[in-house]
TrEMBL record, chain B:
Key words, A-Z: Membrane, Transmembrane, Transmembrane helix
Chain segments annotated as transmembrane: 12-33, 53-75, 87-108, 120-142
Source organism: Planomonospora parontospora subsp. parontospora
Protein name: Copper resistance protein D domain-containing protein
Amino acid sequence: MEPHAGPVRRRAPWHLRANALVVGWLALTVAVAVAGDGLPAPRWLLIHVFLLGAVSTAILIWSEHFAVALLRARTPDPRWSLARLGLLNAAAVAVLYGVAAGPAGVAIGGAGVVVAVVVWHAAALVRLARRALPGRFGHVIAWYVCAAGALAAGGTLGALLAAHVGHGAVHERLHAAHAQVNLLGWVGLTVLGTLFTLWPTVLRTRMPERTRRASVVGLRLAVPGLVLLTGGLAADLRPVAAAGLVVYAAGALAALVPLAEAVRVRRPHTGAAWMLGAGVVWFEVALVADVVVVATRPAGGVAAGLEPLLPLVVAGFAGQVLLGSLLHLLPAVLGGGPVRFKENAALLERGWVARLAAFNAGVVLLALPVPRPLAVLGWALVLAAVAVFVVLAVVALVRAASAERASGGHEGGGPAGGRGGAGRPVLSPALAGVVAGCVLTAAAVVVAVTGSTGAGPVMAATGAKTVEVTLSGMRVRPAVIEAAPGTVLTLRVTNTDAQRHDLRLASGERTPMLAAGQSAVLTLAPLGGQVEGWCTVAGHRAAGMTMRIVPVGALAGSGRGTAGDTAGGAGAGHGAHGAADGTRAGAGAAGTGLDLGAAMSPGWRPYDAALKPAPGGAEHEVEIRVDDRAVLEVAPGVRQRMWTFNGTVPGPVLRGKVGDVFTVTFVNGGTMGHGIDFHAGANAPDEVMRTIQPGERLTYRFRAGFAGAWLYHCSTMPMTQHIASGMYGAVVIDPPDLARVDREYLLVQGELYLGEPGGDAQVVKLREGRPDGWMFNGTAAGYDHAPLEARAGERVRIWAVAAGPGSGTALHVVGAPFDTVYKEGAYLLRAGDAGGAQVLDLAPAQGGFAELVFPEAGAYPVVDHTMHRAEGGAHGLFEVGAR
Amino acid sequence: MTWWTVVRFAHVLSAALWVGGQLTVSLVVLPLARRLLDGERRAGVMRAVGRRFGLFTGAVFLPVQLGTGVALAWRKGVTWASLAEPGYGRILAAKLVLFCAVMAAAGLHGWATGGGRPALARAMAVTALVGSAGVVLLAAALPAT
């Protein structure tokens, strides 16, 4: 303790500085609310800046303060308290950043630290209580400890949410449990526990006799109720959750009885008292509404049902209680003797009637389904009330600081000093400067990074186009919409997912939060420049729920790759890809520096190109298992992860006769959803081609009605990524009169994209149609290193399938014309005809075969005669021996 | 190496001197003055340091910074309209506004020092320092191309 610190200021220094943190978070809350739509996940940020930042910091400070005061304990070492506070604030920043902008890992780590800090805090409180003499107020500490336990649970649930554990309904249930346990537990229990002593103090009356009993009964009901509620929501047991909430509400009521008695004795007469009282009333209202929501909705719908209640709880209850408490407590902590106390109290309560009325009117407007201008008015009222408090509090803090210095000035606070020996100022000018500088910088950064204008010149409308947009599985489909400049686009946005999403465009249009199955229509201004769109639910943008609207002719790859998912109604991309292909791809392949002449890694085995004859029988049973962690040699010396069927690229070859039935057991042994699509079969896609999740399996039964060389591939969106990553294979159905030949080979040609499958780099190259190379049977130039064998004079049949995803093939054997060509179910040329053929040309997903007879011994290259592809790896050798 | 390299070099060097000078005064000169000098002489020394730094700001830093900055923006093709566009323009605009705020804080610091308001003067000095770091942050955020 410093020498002449007054009795009121015993704990003043660190408490005051800590309260500056709370005021800072409140100011940030106002800033976030005002910045609103410019921010990623604005709604989530607003709630969490306020609750995780301001409210949690305040709870940490004040629950310890009250515990010390009530237990008449010795002040614990402030260093540890400050450490907890610092950790909590750092963790809060990590969570806010991680969820809103950064990698989820940051948010999860932050949540972990939050949980650790509150557990530490609870342990510190327990230690305080153990060491203190038994007193009248020990029961309050139990509320604080239980509240900390609730945040530990709620924080853990939050980390699970940030990690996207569980999708759809599971996610919604975890969300509901997270919100309930944090609001009712961490905030609710703390507030109730504090009010036992704070409320009589604010009213300047005695604590009612029955307080202790009410406290014990209340806590005994509230905590088990909370456990049941949280467990019931998480485990999808509605009756349990509803019962838990009712028990909790009963506990809260029991705890409020002595408060009501106090009001009977002495009516509230200060702003602090009225704000606290109003906050408690909102708590009651929200609890009743909460009971109705939890009792009448399935657990998966609770989070959506609670949405309208949030303003009540967050602003009406938590915000108002926080403001009311600070109104009452700040003058006391600012200290400086009775005169200054009165001055500060008067300053902080200035105009409290109007502020109280404005705040609560605002809460009512926010809670009711009013038209947008009224809702904006509600925000303005609430925020104005908060802003007035922030300004007054800052004035009071600064005043206290200068008064402090005046009293300590004679100790040698020189002109540039401001840091007298005794008068450690409550808010040093340096700290004030740091805060001011940081606020200025933060404001400038916000201005710098928001891109909310519909940039570009105002366009005249030249046409109209309606596009169906679906939100599902962390994707916006289509991911790219192309339209001519000037087009008036109408987006019909439908959420087909089991969890809530919305769509917000950088040009300002946004849908409301859409529950499962809901739709909304957005009509855009005539298209000028590129417009980004994303889902504002926390974390979804980072997970890839983004889209772009591109004026046609401006599809140059820019920004980060979102998804090459060009399926859907917009007709995006493929034409452009095809056009780009011929001109740019060669340069791309050359630019990547694949060294096709390099040695293959030791132990590499080529995919066996020799095609075995069809097994006998008309029924074939096959198991195809997804392995999306296989590491394969895709080019000489280049090994990378591929997504595969059965661990190879291409997947296993299926061969049979016309009319054969294939029963494929498709097992997803991978790490994400996959599906399979056999072109050779005739089935409604809905069931057999559906995406199945890891660990699931399905049976795909098809009858091969037609002969040909057929493609099969993964049917999960975005297919570009799944096919480009290696999920394709061939089904060979022999034509009825297929002649015997000496050798049969199968070449499946595919594009090679280097890099992590599904990664940003791959996606950008996919969208631009710029593969790094081309492969026969999964390895670029593989058969240059392991040539295919034949003998002079032998008839060789080369089956070929073009897997793409973007390019086909012009298959050619150097030095040996084809005398037979069979393409897509028909002979274009038969042996014995006068004509010959030089190329078997296949568009992406087509298949066929060509036959030839090697005239003499030698090395005959087999290539895709689109020469840049040949030079990019679509190249192999026939090593032909003497007859 | 073109003349534009020299212009950019002058811009960066001048900024480094300004931010570095503030840091040196706050982190090196001030603590030492507090320790080694009594109140009277410290006030005199700090006033002199402040006056000299203010002179440097007005005579060298501001002209160089504004001149080279305007030239660089002109070369870049920045227009008033483009300042509002997201991306380069918006970041540059934010940087300029923050720079003006920093200059205002520095000016207030000088005024408060002269007017015998040490707390305000110190707060403004730190505000200017932190804000300058913010300007550098925004400068680093400007896309390179």
